[in-house]
Structures are given as structure tokens and as C-alpha cells.
């Protein structure tokens, strides 16, 4: 059934699954929380028999159904025999972020195998590792508030582009740590740094003056072309391996000037080629806060 959409939402506890399922409900998906995996094929069969009344369905499958998780692989194989290709959305976040979120809400971790919430989180990662490896899309929600996460999910799914190769670009600052769960990391610290120009240091890669400064150097144009050629040449191989989502992080020292500029440039080039592209600048606001504190 070509117009039947099945989304499986999973991921770490505290990473935003409750936000995600609300987004899908708003997009007119029929949603079921904490769905036992072995019931997915049967429920999908009922949907196929509904004559289009249930053509968009989203299930949450997570550690709360731990006893059933081992059945998920078999359920996914059954769906293949029914010509159903579910998309698995896996939500991730750093340990310290999840610990903070549980502290703010005063919720208990669903595993409860240890009095230490950090131990429970680490154990949950191990148990969900196989499911994560099968994910169509992985979103690190560490830097998102609920509104930003909602917007990110809508971008991926709302316009029906989920069946195409989607590209996610993110700028970051190396001094704030490497991003997790990305397919490629590109380093642009070899480019001239606008930070050392007094008239540019307080600006960002979104500002025209910074863009003009960087673009005057031949290495900038050369790097932009080479990065684009690399990404464009790799996409067919990712598609051949069954991947429909490619996440790329581009880093400079602080994540404010060079990486922001290059992400914007590559996003424009890839959109012109026809790819659905989503991008964000992870550390640009953090750098802006530091700049204001210095003033």
C-alpha cells in the first residue's frame, strides 16, 4: 500500500518522545504510545484493511516495553513481507542532558535497575543499541527545547519528503565537544578566522560582512566545491545501503563564523540539486552569550 505511512518512534527516555508523538498527532497520524512490537504487524494489517481510513500511523516503542523488544526484529521482517517499510525515528540526547531533564521533572527512570539514574541511562543505551542501528532518522535533542524539537520533526515528516534522501547539516564549535550520532564530520578550522578581525569578531557566519571576508580567500571557494562534490558523490552509496537520512556536522573553533558560513553555503548548493536539506547552528547562540558577557 504505497500511501500507507508507518512511523516507529523510539529512543532514550527523556529525549523527547512525548513531544514527538504530539507532533505526529497534530499531523493527523493515528498514534499509539508504548506499543508492544509483536502487535505492530497485526495492527498494520488492520490499517491496510481500513480502505485508507488509517493511512498514517505512528507507534512509540521504547524501554518501557523491554520484555517485548526482542520481538521487534521479527516484527520488522513481517512488515517486509507485507510490503510495508516503516520509518524509525530515534531520539537521542547526551547523558548529562537526560540526567538534568529527569531532575527537572522529578520523574523516575523507567528501568529502575539501579538507584543511580546515570547507571539506568547507560543500561538503557545498551538495550536500545540494536534498535538505534536500524533507525531511519536519529535526532540528537540535547540542544532543543520542545518547540525547536517539534519544528525539527515537522521538517522531516510533514511534506512527505521522508521517502527521499534527506540531508541534515549542523555547525558546531570544537571547544564545546563533538556532536553525537552524525554520519560525517567536516573540519573548517583551516579557513581564515574572522574572529581575529576586530570588525567581524562580534558577528557570525550569517552576517554579510563575514561572508564577504571569507569568500575573498580562494581556499574558501575551493573547500566549498570539494565538500559539495564529496557529499554529492557519497549520497548514491548511502542510498544503495538503504539509508535515507544523512547527517553532516561542520565544525570550527567556536561554531560561530566559519562553520556557520559553510553550512549555509552547502545547504544552498544541496537544495539547488533537489535534496531536502535541514540545517541548524548548534553553538552560535552560546557564542553570542559569551560575547555579550565580555561587553
Notes on the protein architecture:
The chain is of the alpha/beta class. It folds into 2 domains: 5-163, P-loop containing nucleotide triphosphate hydrolases (Rossmann fold), CATH 3.40.50; 166-294, no CATH class. The chain is built from 11 helices and 9 strands. The strands form 2 sheets. The protein has a 5-stranded parallel beta sheet, with helices on both faces. Strands 7-8-6-9 form a 4-stranded parallel beta sheet, with helices on both faces. Mean pLDDT is 86; it is low at 290-295.
Features:
295 residues; alpha/beta; Rossmann fold; 4-stranded parallel β-sheet; 11 helices; 17% strand
Structure summary:
With 295 residues, this protein is of the alpha/beta class.
- Summed up, the domain count is 2
Question: Could you spell the SSE succession in H and E letters?
Answer: EHEHEHHEHHEHEEHHEHEH
Largest sheet properties: 5 strands, parallel
Number of helices: 11
Topology:
Elements: E1 5-11, H1 17-26, E2 30-32, H2 40-48, E3 56-60, H3 66-69, H4 72-81, E4 87-92, H5 95-105, H6 117-133, E5 137-140, H7 146-157, E6 166-173, E7 184-187, H8 208-215, H9 218-240, E8 245-252, H10 258-272, E9 277-281, H11 284-294
Parallel strand pairs: 1-3, 1-4, 2-3, 4-5, 6-8, 6-9, 7-8
Amino acid at each position: 500500500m504505497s500511501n500507507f505511512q508507518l512511523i516507529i518512534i523510539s529512543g532514550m527516555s527523556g529525549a523527547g518522545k512525548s513531544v514527538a508523538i504530539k507532533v505526529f498527532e497534530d499531523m493527523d497520524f493515528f498514534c499509539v504510545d508504548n506499543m508492544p512490537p509483536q502487535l505492530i504487524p497485526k495492527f498494520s494489517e488492520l490499517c491496510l484493511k481500513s480502505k485508507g481510513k488509517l493511512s498514517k500511523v505512528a507507534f512509540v516503542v521504547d524501554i518501557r516495553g523491554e520484555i517485548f523488544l526482542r520481538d521487534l526484529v521479527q516484527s520488522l521482517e513481517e512488515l517486509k513481507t507485507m510490503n510495508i517499510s516503516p520509518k524509525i525515528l530515534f531520539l537521542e540526547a547526551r547523558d548529562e542532558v537526560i540526567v538534568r531533564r529527569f531532575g527537572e521533572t522529578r520523574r523516575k527512570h523507567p528501568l529502575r535497575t539501579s538507584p543511580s539514574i546515570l547507571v539506568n541511562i547507560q543500561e538503557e543505551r545498551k538495550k536500545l543499541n540494536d534498535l538505534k542501528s536500524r533507525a531511519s532518522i536519529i535526532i540528537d535533542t540535547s540542544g532543543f527545547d520542545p518547540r525547536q524539537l517539534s519544528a525539527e520533526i515537522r521538517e522531516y515528516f510533514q511534506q512527505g519528503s521522508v521517502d527521499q534522501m534527506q540531508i541534515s547539516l549542523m555547525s558546531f564549535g570544537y571547544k564545546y565537544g563533538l556532536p553525537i550520532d552524525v554520519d560525517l564530520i567536516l573540519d573548517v578550522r583551516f579557513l581564515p578566522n574572522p574572529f581575529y578581525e576586530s570588525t567581524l569578531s562580534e558577528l557570525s557566519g550569517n552576517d554579510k560582512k563575514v561572508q564577504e571576508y571569507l569568500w575573498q580567500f580562494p581556499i574558501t571557494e575551493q573547500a566549498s566545491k570539494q565538500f559539495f562534490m564529496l557529499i554529492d558523490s557519497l549520497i548514491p552509496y548511502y542510498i544503495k545501503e538503504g539509508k535515507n537520512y544523512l547527517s553532516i556536522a561542520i565544525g570550527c573553533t567556536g561554531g560561530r563564523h566559519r562553520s556557520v558560513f559553510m553550512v549555509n553555503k552547502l545547504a544552498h548548493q544541496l537544495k539547488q540539486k533537489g535534496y531536502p536539506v535541514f540545517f541548524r547552528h548548534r553553538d552560535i547562540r552560546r557564542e553570542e552569550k559569551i560575547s555579550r558577557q565580555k561587553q
